[in-house]
Each structure stands twice: as C-alpha cells, then as structure tokens.
Design brief:
The chain is 36% helix and 25% strand. The chain has 444 residues and is of the alpha/beta class. Helix 14 runs antiparallel to helix 15. The longest helix is centred in the N-terminal third of the chain and has 18 residues.
C-alpha cells in the first residue's frame, strides 16, 4: 500500500536550455517516470519552458507539455522557473547564461564538463553568493553516479587516488584495436560509422574530454579548486597495434585513463594511455562503457561502471540532480552539500605537480640493432638513472632484418629520471627508431 504525501505542493518548474540528444532524453524520462520521480522528490518536477533555436524540432518533442521559445534569456527571466538546465555545451554562451541564471536566483543543472573544468571556481562562487545550487552529476561519466559517490557516499574517507575510463569513444577505439587487430585509423573510422565518434574527434582522441572530467573528480576528491589548465593531457592517436599486442603478451591492457593521486608534495592530475594489469576489473571494461576506480583509506578500492554517454543515461544523471535540488529547494543554503564536497572555507590550494615529478612505472619499446651488448647498454643506462626493471621481452621486429623489438617494463620511478634516461638511450646509434613510452599503473 502506498503512503499518502503529507501535502500537495506545486510542481518545481524547470527551464531547459537546449533540447538536443540529452535534452530530449531528459524530457522523455521525466514524462515516462513522472510518478516514480514525484514519489522520490516529494513533488512533481515539470519542464515548463524549453529554449532552442530549432523551434520546430523542440515543439515536435514537447508538444503542448511546455512553452517553447528561441531566446534562452526568456527562460532565465521567467519568475516562475525554479531550476535552469543548461544543455547547450561549450564555454562561451553557456558560461554567460549559467552566470545570468545564478544571478537571477535560479538553481542550475548542467552536463557541461568543459564549462565547469575551465570556469568552475567562478560558477560555484556565484552560486554560493546567491544561495543556490549547481548540480553537475551528468558532467562526468554519464549515467554513473560518480559525483555523488565522491561527494557524499565516500565522505568518511581520505581519498588516496581516482582512476577512470571516462571517455567512451577512446575506450571503443582501444577495444577494437585490441580485439580485432585494427590500427588506430581503422578503429576511428569504425567508431565514426557507429556514431561513437564525431566527424571531428579531436576533443575525444586528444584526451581533452577525459581531462575535463578528471579535473572535476580531482577537485571533489581532494577539496581543491578546479584546475584544468594544470592537467597533463595525452591522447591515443600515436598508439600502435604492436604495443597493444605486446602489452597483452605481458599481461596488460592499454586504456586511456584519467588519474588523480594524493602525494606528500601535492596532487597528480593526468590523462594518458596506460598499461593496466589484465586481471583488474577496469582493464576488462570494453566498448563505449565507462568505469571509475576510487581508493579511500577506510573503504579500500571501489569500482563504478556503466554507460558514460547517451540520451537516457545522461538524462538519468540530470534528473537525479533535479530531484536533489527539489528535496532541498527550501532548505537553508548552509545545510546543503557543497558542490565540491568540502565546505568553502575548508578548500585547500594544494599544488598540482608538474609531470616531471609524477611517480609511475613504464612500458618502453625500442627498435634496436640485433647486436651483442645492446641490451646491456640499455639496462646500464636505466640503472644509471636508478630505474629498476620489472620485465624484458625481445621479439623479432616487423620493421626489417637485423633489428629487434626490445620491450621493457620498469618499476615505479620519477618521470624526470625517465625523461633523462630516454634522451640518453635515444642518442645511441643502435636505437633505430623513436622510443615508445607508455605509463603503467598497477591500481592495486
């Protein structure tokens, strides 16, 4: 038997800026699950107004259920609107509209990771000044509730590190390269044909999208300002099928990871291709799926897995924020969960370490002359820089006779030492091609 609600408050009125893929998903999920959402939120959540330049498309989606306008500022100016949902994207007009909505005393929900990674400090400060909320669960890993987990579920923990597959496009490409032996270009074409990659895929394949998300997770995990400009970012376009194959032979898989770690000297914040042991659950996340691993001192290691994009998975996260705001709509702002988990006065400006000070292990592939003494010379250089070796694999090179592929796995070392060692090795006349260096994380 269902329990009656204590009262019948009026619906929360939502204004939607942009009704593309995610906007449509948000509208349709809200309509379909209206009763269930009302039971959870305590009152109905209703999209009352939609702003989109394509009026015909917007009207075809919402019908008579909401007012449709072309001017987003008309939504912000409407005194009946309680929450503005920004689904326009980018860091230009979206920033202006979000700040105007906050200045008008509206709560804001956004899926815009680029906006918050670049301008988050300004936006969160504006929300705090007005006593309103900025919800952004949908900005990281689509339908996976990783923001809520970091901000609330793991609040008892001292977070030590976070590592995630947080871009489905690149994970699909790497999965195709591994399972089908495709080169990067072929796998990218496959991703574009299936709609996983845009016609211009640079935002994904260069690691920028993942870095935006890693920046937000780092801020919440460690209570620091968002600092996208300090993140180290490498993409996957230079990866070769040979390295994926050799990694597999050594018991590893290559994933594009967003990683942030606590160190005594500061924080690591980096995105790059990474060897991960094939026995780790995250190494077995395939296709366009996302996964995030969080290590806390009390809980240990936890894994969050699911769809990182798509209309309804992302809509699920948008609506979760709408429900949270609805529950707390009349609450004292001082009693709400802070957007970056830590109280504003308790935020710390911990430095982001330069890449030369990062500590990690490495996979190295050298194309070398097939001569006696070459391996000894290479290992001697590594020893001279205090870099210890974990494993060595030597295979006949596909690049020609008289040369061989030398694959080396190292133990953890400081990146600056590895940089110096690589420069010295590259200068050897017996090293016949640019050395491939991929970082390695055990995630244990």
């Amino acid at each position: 038997m269902s329990l009656p609600l204590d009262s019948n408050p009026p619906p929360i009125q939502v204004g939607l800026l942009g009704i593309g893929t995610v906007g449509r998903g948000t509208f349709e999920v809200l309509q379909r699950n209206r009763g269930e959402i009302r039971r959870r939120a305590g009152r109905e959540i209703r999209i009352a107004c939609v702003a989109d330049l394509d009026l015909a498309r917007a009207r075809a989606i919402v019908g008579e259920q909401a007012r449709v306008v072309a001017d987003a500022r008309a939504v912000i100016a409407d005194p009946a609107i309680d929450i503005v949902v920004e689904l326009i994207g980018g860091t230009g007009i979206a920033r202006t509209l979000v700040l105007e909505a906050l200045a008008a005393g509206k709560h804001v929900v956004t899926a815009n990771k680029a906006l918050l990674a670049v301008h988050g400090s300004e936006i969160f400060a504006a929300a705090r000044e007005q006593g309103v909320v900025v919800g952004f669960e949908a900005a990281v890993a689509g339908g996976i509730p990783i923001i809520k987990a970091l901000r609330e579920g793991l609040t008892a923990n001292r977070i030590e590190w976070v590592a995630g597959i947080i871009n489905g496009t690149t994970n699909f490409i790497l999965s195709e390269m591994r399972s089908k032996g495709l080169d990067f270009g072929q796998a990218l074409q496959q991703a574009q044909a299936l709609g996983y990659a845009e016609a211009d895929p640079r935002f994904d394949i260069e690691g920028i999208d993942a870095a935006h998300k890693a920046t937000l997770m780092s801020a919440i995990a460690f209570g620091v300002p968002v600092q996208f400009d300090r993140a180290w970012v490498e993409g996957i376009a230079a990866l070769q099928t040979a390295d994926i194959r050799y990694a597999e032979q050594l018991g590893y898989r290559i994933k594009l990871l967003g990683i942030t770690k606590r160190r005594e000297q500061g924080l690591e914040l980096r995105v790059h291709p990474t060897l991960v042991p094939a026995t780790r659950l995250i190494a077995n996340v395939e296709g366009a799926m996302n996964a995030v691993v969080v290590h806390g001192d009390a809980v240990g290691t936890t894994l969050y897995y699911g769809k990182g994009a798509g209309a309804e998975p992302t809509a699920s996260a948008v609506i979760a924020d709408l429900v949270d705001i609805t529950r707390l709509h009349a609450a004292d702002p001082a009693h709400r969960v802070p957007p970056l988990a830590f109280q504003p006065g308790a935020m710390q400006d911990i430095p982001i370490l330069p890449m030369a000070e990062v500590v990690t292990a490495y996979y190295l592939r050298l194309v070398v002359a097939d001569k006696a003494g070459v391996l000894a010379r290479i290992t001697g250089i590594l020893a001279g820089h205090e870099i210890s070796i974990d494993a060595v694999l030597q295979r006949e090179s596909g690049d020609g006779e008289g040369q061989t592929d030398l694959i080396i796995l190292t133990h953890d070392t400081v990146e600056g030492r590895m940089d110096a060692a690589l420069a010295q090795m590259q200068a050897l006349p017996t090293v016949l091609a640019p050395i491939v260096r991929i970082r390695k994380e055990e995630l244990s």
